């Protein structure tokens, strides 16, 4: 089942989009610091370095202002979860996709719909079911009797915000229809390539408890989600507040957009210009490399994970009003960005250690760079 609040016609694109990951060489200036505060001081750049980053103050002010409005609007629907809301906005500004995984009834779909409704743009909601077809997602060519030719009817993926509910209930064939869309921002049907709208984000939910009638996401698709988050149960005080606000009303229906798609695109452009030193890039690579070499994991983080971690750290720094990335930004995002991509080794499973515990140990072991100069 597909729902949408607005729709724009897809336009063909002549060539496929290609993406290149540039690897910047940098000298590892590492060395474990006695305190994270010392690392933070070492990363404060002089005015000349900050000016060269290209992130203007007006752009950063717009990022923080719009993000604050989005947080306030979403907080009227999602009570007592500021960190979850902030991570969702971070993924949006980092041009990623979000996987929300948790038990039933904690507000997974509500979070996705709240973020979508805070933006005045095209939104589609897809209820993933076993009988959903790939063409329902990507679109299909239909013969037009009047024109005597085939015309393309866009599918649910042609929207700025796509909310996929219970994504693991669709068949692997349908799940695979999302791969090109999520990685390259385009759809190819009958040999013709169509570019998706910008900005573009997929927010999918899944229930890890009830596995009957589900198809686990393959590693290739999990790796395309920039971050995975869990809602968790609210605190008793937050749950009482939720009863007050949701008991006799529906805050999501009363929620109004606080920004639009064009503004979000400008925020994304600003985030791209944030200064990231060679030492920070080396730190990101050191962290992901550590996941590949530790015996606690059978599968570590991919190079795509390194790129996602860097992009998310830029967005996280921009939301804090900074035009440069600190090691703190990277460390704050290690778990939501990397944990869902890793497969634990047999010994790790026997010891009942989680991927998050392994990551926290690796973060403690990997030296934090002392300076970005």
Question: Any overview of this molecule?
Answer:
Helices cover 43% and strands 16% of the residues. With 373 residues, the chain is an alpha/beta fold. The longest helix is centred in the N-terminal third of the chain and has 19 residues, at 57-75.
Keywords, separated by commas or semicolons:
single chain, 373 residues, 6-stranded mixed β-sheet, 3-stranded antiparallel β-sheet, 43% helix, 16% strand
Short description, anyone?
The protein has helices at residues 36-42, 47-52, 57-75, 82-93, 108-117, 134-138, 172-175, 179-184, 219-222, 236-246, 251-254, 261-272, 278-293, 303-319, 327-338, 346-350, 355-365, and strands at residues 2-4, 11-13, 98-101, 119-120, 123-127, 139-144, 149-154, 161-165, 186-189, 192-195, 201-206, 227-229, 259-260, 297-299, 343-344. It is an alpha/beta fold and 373 residues long.
Break the fold down into its secondary structure elements and pairings.
Elements: E1 2-4, E2 11-13, H1 36-42, H2 47-52, H3 57-75, H4 82-93, E3 98-101, H5 108-117, E4 119-120, E5 123-127, H6 134-138, E6 139-144, E7 149-154, E8 161-165, H7 172-175, H8 179-184, E9 186-189, E10 192-195, E11 201-206, H9 219-222, E12 227-229, H10 236-246, H11 251-254, E13 259-260, H12 261-272, H13 278-293, E14 297-299, H14 303-319, H15 327-338, E15 343-344, H16 346-350, H17 355-365
Parallel strand pairs: 3-11, 3-12, 4-13, 5-8, 8-11
Antiparallel strand pairs: 1-5, 2-10, 6-7, 9-10, 14-15
Helix pairs in contact: 3-4, 3-12, 4-14, 12-14, 13-14, 14-15, 15-17
